[in-house]
Amino acid sequence: MKQYGLIGYPLTHSFSKKYFMEKFEKGNIKETQYHLFPIEHISELPHLLKEHPNLCGLNVTIPYKQTVLKYLDWIENDAKKIGAVNCIRISAESPVEAAFTGELGITGHNFRLEGFNTDMYGFEMSLRPLLKPRHDHALVLGDGGSAQAIKCVLENLGITYKVVTRKPQAGSILFKDLEARHIKQNLLIINTTPLGMTPKTEEYPPIPYQDLTSDHLLFDLIYNPEKTIFLQKGEEHGAVIKNGLEMLILQAEKSWEIWTEKNIQP
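^ thats the sequence. predicted structure below, dont judge the formating
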């Protein structure tokens, strides 16, 4: 029985299990399961892998996209560049080659953990059709693991961005310091924070919504609920809005490709 799964904490409202189990059923993919593993600390990962020797791949979500890196034997270039992994391929082969390259992880088991980032692919493919020439400056709300992938995509697309955070950090703007000029100058606004996610649907990023216009594009990585207050407020001012569902589907399919395609080599 091949097993796949998702690690994160908490996982009470995960899309992944339902999506993959339906995929297995519709595709007549036998002897394959997808499980949720709500581990309270990333240090539990080696024990989890030992307990589930049939695991072939894992998705990684909040809050472990960055802290999981130290457990991996190899990391693809994009994931290494942004410092965040949301997809792990588990190989049963002994990581001898990794030992010679100095990229040996610390799991101490006879399998190899390879890290990828599929958020980049999912976000870019979901965002591209909505972009207009005026969307050349962006605000990225939050700076966690997901934000690293978003920033990399924006750089690849030639879109200048500013990061907005709750706590001071180099190069970022504080939410409390956002003004009308920031909203008017940045017609693309991306929420990478969990503010507004089920069950705390009453929350939303504190930005000057009154300055939004029909020229704005608001993208929320949250998919549950379908329309967060962040998106509702954007829609009320005529902005184009999009949630994270398509992004999630695209990154899930990319994960499946990584787990199953033999021609994807590290």
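The chain has nine helices and twelve strands.
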